[in-house]
């Protein structure tokens, strides 16, 4: 399913995204390598064993990026002009290798651009690690603001054939 056009977003709507991803050690290592983040808490098992966490943590920016990626199919796939901002980022709980992440987006605001040709949509994105037998644990949350295309007049999704 392609993403939503500006008109299709409804303030207050919550979307539980269908895709999930289990984070591997290799995922975390590659992300750290690509971003040149050599923080030992992410990469050095002996170092991490001596911290309050007892093991390596997944890079928080990877967790945030994954949450965005998991949300794209049902929000902005093919309908986005640009990501405008990521605000109020929080990481309330750690993520470890082997954790499975799911995401949820709630539309919190929308408005047309001043020229009326596009729209600005803000969503609260939450990422959870799936924990067997318990409620899912919130691991990352943030506001994502996007510049969205309006639905083309000749698009079959508007009911005018």
From TrEMBL:
Q: What is this protein called?
A: Molybdenum cofactor biosynthesis protein
Entries under SUPFAM superfamilies matching the protein = Thioesterase/thiol ester dehydrase-isomerase
Q: Which InterPro entries match?
A: HotDog_dom_sf, MaoC-like_dom, MCH/BMMD
Q: Give start and end of each MaoC-like domain.
A: 11-123
Top-rank taxon: Archaea
């Amino acid at each position: 399913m392609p993403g939503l056009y500006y008109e299709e977003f409804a303030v207050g709507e919550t979307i539980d995204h269908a895709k999930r991803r289990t984070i591997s050690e290799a995922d975390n290592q590659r992300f750290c390598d690509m971003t040149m983040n050599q923080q030992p808490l992410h990469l050095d098992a002996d170092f991490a064993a001596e911290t309050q966490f007892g093991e390596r943590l997944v890079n928080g920016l990877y967790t945030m990026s994954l949450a965005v990626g998991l949300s794209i199919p049902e929000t902005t796939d093919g309908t986005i002009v640009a990501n405008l901002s990521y605000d109020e980022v929080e990481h309330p709980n750690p993520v470890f290798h082997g954790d499975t992440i799911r995401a949820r987006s709630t539309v919190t605001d929308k408005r047309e651009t001043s020229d009326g040709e596009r729209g600005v949509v803000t969503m609260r994105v939450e990422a959870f690690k799936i924990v067997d037998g318990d409620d899912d644990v919130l691991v990352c949350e943030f506001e994502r603001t996007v510049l969205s295309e309006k639905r083309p007049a000749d698009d079959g999704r508007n009911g005018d054939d």
